[in-house]
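Support request from a user on the community tier.

User writes: "When I paste my structure tokens into the form, the page sometimes reloads and wipes my input. The last time it worked, I copied everything first. Here is what I submitted, just in case something in the input itself triggers the reload:"
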């Protein structure tokens, strides 16, 4: 269940909101020297201000490849070269983009909740298999603990998604 929440957080950082976030470039793959690598293995991404990212490559010779990869990504960023680094301004979100991002957040949230419920079901099934060796009152107590844990993680997923939707809508 914890893994589902971690995956949700990691997935939502990839979404472009109105604010700059270093994690939004992590999924971009850069081809340099015939090898494809994630952008975060080739450069340090930092936030200059709420609307601007700075991309500092470990090797200045990869600057052009980094720029091409960012431009061709679905994020809609257009970085400019500033000496030995790239500066990417985060454009304002359109209404259509905001609605699309909110749909993605809702779908991701639902997928994570289903994953949490599957984990709950697996735990209950395992408990029932071992049930013959446990007293009935202990079975009920364990079932209640599993249900409370499930509710806690579902609420956590909801809170993360509501915060992300708020961030998207505030742009």
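"...and here is what came back when it finally went through:"
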């Amino acid at each position: 269940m914890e893994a589902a929440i971690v995956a949700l957080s990691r997935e939502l950082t990839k979404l472009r909101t109105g604010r700059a976030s270093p994690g939004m470039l992590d999924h971009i793959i850069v081809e340099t020297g015939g090898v494809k690598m994630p952008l975060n293995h080739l450069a340090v991404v930092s936030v200059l201000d709420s609307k601007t990212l700075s991309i500092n490559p470990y090797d200045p010779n990869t600057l052009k490849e980094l720029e091409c990869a960012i431009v061709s990504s679905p994020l809609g960023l257009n970085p400019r070269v500033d000496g030995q680094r790239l500066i990417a301004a985060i454009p304002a979100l359109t209404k259509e983009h905001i609605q699309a991002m909110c749909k993605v957040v809702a779908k991701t949230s639902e997928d994570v909740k289903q994953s949490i419920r599957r984990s709950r079901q697996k735990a209950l099934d395992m408990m029932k298999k071992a049930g013959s060796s446990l007293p009935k009152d202990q079975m009920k107590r364990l079932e209640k603990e599993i249900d409370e844990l499930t509710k806690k993680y579902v609420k956590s997923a909801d809170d993360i998604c509501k915060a992300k939707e708020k961030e998207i809508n505030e742009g």
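Agent notes: The reload is a front-end session timeout and is unrelated to the input. Residues 95-129 form the longest helix (35 residues). The mean pLDDT is 86. Escalated to web team.
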